[in-house]
């Protein structure tokens, strides 16, 4: 099921996963130059950076039972990736609404805005 979570709600979403939370993945689908400009520190999840145009080839490496939250700059690309994952059989998928820009505003002002 695809859900929308604000960055400030991500920990609550993780907690709602129960025992599955331990395997949660934050999938950053931005381009490498964007990740260099600003990135998040993993906290309660593993972080993977896979540009959006490479997700289709990468997805076969991930267990569809694994919870995945998708992140981009403002939430549009990550929503498309989250929908793709949900259509590909992933059962626990979230889009981080507002992206890393909202992350900086809501969770960690130390994350640069660009």
Molecular structure report:
- The structure is a single chain.
- With 114 residues, the chain is an alpha/beta fold.
- 32% of the residues lie in helices and 18% in strands.
- The protein has 5 helices and 5 strands; from the N terminus they run βαβαβαβαβα.
- It has helices spanning 10-16, 32-37, 55-58, 76-87, 99-106; strands spanning 2-5, 25-28, 46-49, 68-71, 93-96.
- The chain has a 5-stranded parallel beta sheet, with helices on one face.
- Strand 4 (68-71), helix 4 (76-87) and strand 5 (93-96) form a beta-alpha-beta unit.
- The longest helix has 12 residues, at 76-87.
- The radius of gyration is 13 Å and the shape is globular.
- The chain starts with a strand and ends in an 8-residue tail after the last helix.
- The mean pLDDT is 96.
* Rg calculated over all Cα atoms: 13 Å
The helix/strand series, from N terminus to C terminus, equals EHEHEHEHEH
- Which strand order spans the largest sheet, edge to edge or round the barrel? 1-5-4-2-3
Basic shape: globular
Question: What number is the mean pLDDT?
Answer: 96
The protein's oligomeric status is single chain
Structural class: alpha/beta
Low-pLDDT runs of 5+ residues are: none
For the secondary structure, the number of strands is 5
Q: How many H/I helices?
A: 5
Task: Give the helix level as a range of percent.
Answer: 25-40%
Largest sheet: 5 strands, parallel
- Terminal residue distance: 31 Å
Strand content: 15-25%
């Amino acid at each position: 099921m695809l859900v929308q979570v604000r960055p400030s709600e991500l920990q609550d979403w993780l907690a709602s996963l129960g025992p599955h939370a331990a395997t949660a993945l934050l999938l950053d689908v931005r381009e490498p130059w964007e990740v260099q400009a600003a990135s998040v520190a993993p906290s309660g999840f593993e972080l993977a950076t896979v540009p959006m145009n490479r997700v289709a080839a990468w997805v076969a490496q991930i267990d569809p039972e694994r919870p995945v939250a998708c992140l981009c700059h403002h939430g549009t690309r990550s929503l498309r990736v989250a929908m793709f994952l949900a259509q590909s059989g992933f059962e626990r998928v979230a889009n981080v609404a507002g992206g890393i820009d909202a992350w900086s505003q809501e969770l960690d002002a130390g994350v640069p805005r660009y």
